[in-house]
UniProtKB/TrEMBL annotation:
Taxonomic path: Bacteria, Pseudomonadati, Pseudomonadota, Gammaproteobacteria, Oceanospirillales
Signal peptide: none
Annotated binding of ATP, by residue: R125, L126, G127, M128, G129, G130, G131, F132, Y133
The name this protein goes by in its record: 5-formyltetrahydrofolate cyclo-ligase
UniProt enzyme class: ligase
Length: 177
């Protein structure tokens, strides 16, 4: 599935980014969320750059995942603004530098767009295998107030079915473009 999404042409990727922006503007949970977390596309993932710019125009606060330097396997969420200081993490992925940008507890996010490798019609998500999002949002199992979790994917990433593990966090919706 990773090879499939990497094989998309630049034109297909740009069209997917435009479609995602449009779907974000139609999804009320995303459109009216004050604090949203997204990601910067890597390895052929659906690009969120247009959706992020749209969120900034609406006055939304945008946060990106940052590898937690204290608790291995967890994520911090750090505010992302135009021209904020960035750094590359150990995987070579750009992330806002937490020394210079505001961090938020994931419990206070309103909506989160998660990258994925594959998904099925039941809303199950296959990630990159590190469990970062599952660990970071494990509190959602018990919390009455929690962020809405959305998987973001290209349509070509849909598979017939995926195995579900006890630690997998359920997504509210998959937005495929």
């Amino acid at each position: 599935m990773r090879a499939t999404r990497r094989s998309l042409t630049p034109a297909e990727q740009q069209q997917a980014a435009l479609s995602l922006k449009k779907k974000f503007s139609l999804n009320l949970s995303l459109k009216y969320s004050k604090r949203i977390a997204l990601y910067l596309a890597n390895d052929g993932e659906v690009s969120t750059h247009l959706a992020i710019k749209q969120a900034w125009k609406r006055g939304q606060q945008v946060y990106l995942p940052v590898l937690d330097p204290i608790r291995k396997g967890f994520l911090w969420f750090v505010q992302y603004q135009p021209n904020c200081r960035m750094r590359n993490n150990r995987f070579g992925i750009a992330e806002p530098d937490p020394r210079f940008n505001k961090r938020i507890n994931p419990k206070f996010l309103n909506a989160v767009g998660l990258p994925l490798v594959a998904f099925d019609a039941c809303g199950n998500r296959l990630g990159m295998g590190g469990g970062f999002y599952d660990r970071s949002f494990e509190f959602c199992r018990q919390a009455s107030v929690k962020p809405k979790l959305f998987g973001l994917a290209h349509r070509c990433q849909q598979v017939k079915s995926l195995p579900v593990e006890s630690w997998d966090i359920q997504l509210e919706e998959i937005i495929s473009v």
